[in-house]
Amino acid sequence: MEAQSIRGVRVHAYNDLDSITIDQVPIPDLKDDQILVRIEYAPINIIDLMQALGYYNRQPLPHFFGKEGSGTVVKTGNHPYARFLLGKRVSVDSNVPGFGTYADYLVAYASDAYPLRDSVTFEQAASLIVNPMTVAYMVEKLKQGNHTSALINAAASGIGKMLIKWCKLLNITTVNFVRRQDQADILASIGAEHIFNTSNDGWKESAKALTTQLGTKIGFDAISGSATQDMLDLLENDGIAYIYGALSGEPAHVSPMSLIGGDKTVKGLLLTTWLARMTNEKRVEVGYQIQDLIGSALKTDYISEVTIGEVKDALKQYAAKKTDSKFVVKIRRG
């Protein structure tokens, strides 16, 4: 029997997680380039918290949310690529306004779906896009510039750990920054070689000696605020810092002389921009590349599995910004 409605998690007021409710709405008619995915799993990422609070992709309220997930395509529009996906297991990115993956069904663009290999489980595939593909974008930047070393702050984050592991496979040295000893211990446990705790005295002087020795000219900044200037200070002349997050909640602090005197650059790095430049065939190729590493370098570890009804409480815990506090939502039961 064909599904008639969508049941899932909707936010009703920005900056108020208590406004989240479980709602049900009719499934709309699909446009030619759209698909309907029966969702199995969806992770909770920082981008989901930001959307719930109204800091990212602000939409008319109320709306379903959840950025990525996995499931099966059960209905499609008339576009050839959409029809190609019918019946396929996919990882999917949510970009159709009003819809999200914390729901039993998702209306999505066909171009945002990535067919899965038989060996990849729905649980693994739930986190195939946001973090792993951002890391793939970073690796492309490293390869384009023939870089042999890179700086990573917030290095104990999901993206940070994935980038460290992928760089090890490529023999690229990473210089990693955290702010607590437990985070440093996590990085040591995955084989990170150079780890600096920014809460310790003298960390920056020691890091600068190393980056000078390595000739490091690229860094990935998840924090912004004063961390951006710290990264620029550690890069060699003609270096570039890519900002891909703002965990500090502050604008990037940059000295003009860092840019002028050292001919250094600060740029944004946004996964959506990269993917938008690709053909459907290229996106599928990148998806398979990610799947080849999803059980190893790009593995996502969850601390807990929750239900749709527990998303609100899980988001509140995630908002505490505890390292490794990654939840996965199991949409279907039984």
From TrEMBL:
Coiled coil: none
Keyword Cell inner membrane among UniProt keywords: no
UniProt cross-references to Gene3D superfamilies, sorted A to Z: Medium-chain alcohol dehydrogenases, catalytic domain, NAD(P)-binding Rossmann-like Domain
InterPro entries cross-referenced by the UniProt entry: ADH-like_C, ADH-like_N, ER, GroES-like_sf, NAD(P)-bd_dom_sf
Keywords: NADP, Oxidoreductase
Keyword Oxidoreductase belongs to the record: yes
Domain called Enoyl reductase (ER): residue spans: 15-329
Molecular-function GO terms, alphabetical: NADPH binding; oxidoreductase activity, acting on NAD(P)H
Record's protein name: Enoyl reductase (ER) domain-containing protein
Organism in which the protein naturally occurs: Blepharisma stoltei
